[in-house]
Write a structure and sequence with these properties.
single chain, 82% helix
């Protein structure tokens, strides 16, 4: 254990808690959507739009916050994005109609989308090469903790106190931002470059063009395909999980209970990915976990017994979230410091387009009475496309130092 290890653990835990709060907010939305569909008599298209509008905000937030973090620093942008989504989440509790709620969810999504790539970049730049991949995957594991918290809140709070109480709980990260002000700092790598004035004067379009030039073009193509396919499948499947369980014949409370059990499988998915990513490399973890995610999606969509639904749902959570961890670890390693956060933010932003399309598309397909099995075959194909892109276009970064 190095002398820097306690400081790195503190950073990982501090950034991880903000990540957990993000996941809790996103996770609660899937349960609130199911409750609102009953309480407000929402059509499947409206339910799909409600879950998709969050991703619209996340797409804008990821691109803008990534650029701002390269220009003004990782820490300050992390704090602002945390505050934005916390406040918007709290205000969602007093929304009086569907339109107002959607506007507030867009704002919350903007903060959520901005916080995630900035946090992963901050941790990636602060940890030595031999531990970097594992650290970022462990950071991602806090996402599972957030989803578990969301499932618990939804199971115990929403049936008794209503969806408004869940949104009020989602406002608590605003207080945590005050602690983060003093507990984290910008990475030394970024501070040195900022002190030299390198890259600070680059405009958004200059940074955008730089990730599409020469040595970074191939990686950007691969990352944009990867992010789109992973986000499309994740938000299409997981935001609809409680509703899918209801469609398959379970009650609202029973569907929440089963989704909670499935969500618990996310943690071992992350932990195994964290182990394998430093042992076998980024490409191995991503390709393996994506292929097994695709197989699990096909299995879940066509499962017709209670036991098969639970088993396939557990596998889906395990492998899909492990792949997410690998993706967040891999992405910052492919760009230089002056445009790293911009590159991560743009890839995440493009991916969020998939998160916008998928939940709404599922709503349309459900309204047209397309079988759930057919919908999940669509996710099977999508995830395989991401695996193929990594296999043929990806470069291995295990053990390599970040580029300045």
């Amino acid at each position: 254990m190095t002398a820097r290890a306690p400081k790195q653990r503190k950073l990982l835990f501090s950034a991880g808690l903000s990540w957990m709060f993000d996941a809790m907010d996103v996770g609660i939305i899937s349960f609130i959507a199911a409750a609102l569909a009953v309480e407000w008599s929402l059509t499947p298209q409206q339910t799909g739009f409600f879950t998709a509008i969050n991703s619209v905000g996340m797409a804008f937030g990821a691109a803008i916050a990534g650029y701002m973090a390269d220009k003004f620093g990782r820490k300050s942008v992390l704090l602002w994005t945390l505050l934005i989504f916390s406040i918007a989440s709290g205000l969602s509790a007093v929304a009086t109609g569907f339109a107002v709620l959607c506007v507030l969810r867009f704002i919350a999504g903007f903060g959520l989308g901005g916080e995630l790539p900035v946090a992963s970049t901050l941790v990636s730049e602060s940890v030595p090469a031999k531990e970097r991949g594992r650290a970022v995957v462990l950071l991602e594991s806090f996402w599972a903790a957030g989803w578990i918290a969301a499932a618990l809140i939804s199971y115990f709070v929403i049936p008794s106190y209503g969806w408004q109480a869940a949104f009020l709980i989602g406002a608590t990260p605003a207080l945590y931002a005050l602690y983060l002000r003093k507990s984290i700092q910008d990475p030394p790598r970024f501070k040195k470059q900022a002190a030299r004035g390198e890259g600070k004067g680059l405009s958004f379009m200059e940074r955008f063009r730089s990730v599409w030039t020469g040595p970074y073009r191939r990686s950007t193509i691969m990352l944009w395909i990867l992010w789109f396919t992973v986000v499309f499948s994740y938000y299409g499947m997981f935001l609809w999980l409680p509703s899918v369980m209801i469609i398959k014949g379970f009650t609202l409370v029973k569907s929440f209970e089963y989704v909670l059990i499935m969500t618990l499988a996310q943690l071992p998915g992350y932990f195994t990915a964290a182990y394998f990513i430093e042992k076998f490399g980024r490409k191995f973890v991503l390709v393996l976990y994506l292929v097994l995610t695709a197989a699990s999606a096909a299995w879940f969509g066509n499962a017709d017994t209670e036991g098969m639904l639970l088993a396939s749902g557990i596998c889906l959570s395990f492998f899909n979230l492990g792949a997410w961890g690998g993706m967040y670890a891999y992405t910052p390693e492919l760009y230089p410091t002056k445009v790293r956060s911009t590159g991560v933010g743009l890839a995440a932003s493009f991916g969020r387009i998939g998160g916008i399309i998928a939940p709404y598309l599922v709503g349309v397909l459900v309204a047209r009475q397309v079988a759930i099995g057919g919908i999940f075959w669509m996710f099977f194909i999508t995830v395989l496309v991401g695996a193929v892109a990594v296999f043929f276009l990806g470069v291995e970064t295990k053990g390599k130092e970040l580029v300045d």
